[in-house]
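#help-structures

NK: newbie question. if I give both the sequence and a SMILES, will the prediction place the ligand too? trying with pyridoxal-5'-phosphate
OV: yes, paste both and it writes out the complex. here, I ran yours:
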Amino acid sequence: MVDLQSQYQRLKPELDAAMLGVAADCTYIKGPALVEFESNLGAYLNVKHVIGVANGTDALQIAFMALGLIPGDEVIVPSFTYVATAEVIGLLRLTPVMVDVDLESFTISIEDIKKAITAKTKAIVPVHLYGQSADMEAILAIAKEHQLYVIEDNAQAIGSDFTFSNGETAKTGTLGDIGCTSFFPSKNLGCFGDGGAMFTNDDELASRIRMIANHGQPRKYIHTVLGVNSRLDTIQAAILKVKLRELDDFAHRRQAVAARYDAALSDITELICPTVMSYSSHVYHQYTVRVTNGKRDELQAFLKEKGVPSMIYYPIPLYDQEAFAGYHNGVRHIHTEQLCQEVISFPIHTEMEIETQTFIIATIKSFFTS
Ligand SMILES: *Cc1c(COP(=O)(O)O)cnc(C)c1O
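OV: that's the protein plus ligand as structure tokens.
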């Protein structure tokens, strides 16, 4: 699905120098490369504060802690997403309130957010799924009206731009109160292990986040709140500093792969290529299509037999996962259920060779014409 090996080979001299620099300095925790990376990423995203943490799941957890949410508070999340989004909500004894998604964008449904709001609702977590933004203008308007926090799960969309109806643009992850991202190796900006970051324009929130991520200590051995130990290692930050310079190029490479899939697959009537929403650019963390003739699993088996990898993100609605059984109110989400049956993601990454993609495309096409 991804080719981390070729990307490493292409950037090897810079990446190796970055890693060896940290090894030689022995600045493993909170070293200069971390400070520089946080600052560079802040400049790239045009956001005031970037705080590196240990992974994207921790970023989400720390966000809820920093906003002071307490057990019983309700948080609205899409039912079609990766588990991490809702997992931390449950762990903190907050209540995840799942809502359906939009069939076209795969992101949280605006109408269903409105219906899910109660007196206990405290926050909305839009997930910018597969590499494009949820409808943030609508979400921010709802949040303002009901005084809710917005925490963006930007793990799949770092670098994508949201465009407001007045033409202004901003990077995803910088629109809500707190943005969260992951640097898991296969993400669009990936390190060599686990990593994550949080973004905010709010000074007070930024210092709370830093304090919570560091054992709740504003100063050494002074602990004012219960915190966690969640840091982005200097060696990972050094790697990310190199890769951040490439991030726009990474997106262009992914967009070129997506454009070739679009051109080749759009005439297959049983398959729907991804829609790029007018309000977002798409950085194609995944290239995910819908197979509408009920033969998605057959297609996947066929591809596997021919040596073409594919993945189903995600096969099961969150509310049907045993871990979330307690949060299921019995209402089934028709779009989420339909997408769980229809979606399939094809290989997409920064190092895709034309010949490889031509083979993948021919194999996909042969399934539908045979
Ligand atoms: C990857 C991912 C996460 C979690 O990130 P980790 O760094 O793996 O903890 C959260 N949400 C979404 C949508 C993701 O894709």
